[in-house]
Design goal:
mainly alpha, elongated, 4 helices, 0% strand, single chain
């Protein structure tokens, strides 16, 4: 059993091997790049855009690739009731869409509804006024009522 070595000797051999092979560790992976970033313009990169210009940056159908490759991720915290109601609205609209025979088009998701609501909010951004979520919500409701009556 001359071929056996102790754990201590094995550890010493491993350390010696590591010292000889002292190449630097590989660099950490680079952060993921955005799949496709839309260039910003004065109308869309600040809150000073004009109405519909800043509301919904719809991209022409001729752009290659699926829609999701042109979107950017943004996390948002929602109230539990908002999540529940959002899911209910999404299911109702998706079922209505299927029943009307338009099921082949893009799916209606929670994110679809949030983007649509955000587009409306941005269309009325200059009419918003408030110091907290409740006041801003009331302000948006007032702006929407006034836009319907004109």
């Amino acid at each position: 059993m001359a071929g056996r070595i102790s754990l201590k000797e094995l550890a010493e051999q491993e350390n010696a091997d590591q010292e000889q092979d002292s190449s630097p560790p590989p660099p950490p992976p680079a952060p993921a790049e955005r799949m496709r970033r839309q260039p910003t313009t004065p109308d869309t990169d600040s809150g000073s855009g004009q109405g519909a210009d800043c509301a919904s940056p719809h991209v022409a159908d001729s752009d290659p690739g699926p829609k999701w490759t042109r979107l950017e991720r943004k996390a948002v915290l929602l109230w539990p009731e908002q999540i529940t109601r959002l899911a209910e609205v999404r299911r109702r609209l998706q079922n209505r869409k299927r029943a009307s025979g338009r099921a082949g088009r893009e799916r209606i998701t929670d994110a679809t509804l949030i983007r649509a609501a955000l587009s409306v909010l941005l269309e009325h951004h200059e009419e918003l006024d408030g110091a907290d979520e409740e006041e801003l919500t009331d302000s948006l409701r007032t702006a929407l009522r006034q836009s319907r009556s004109t």
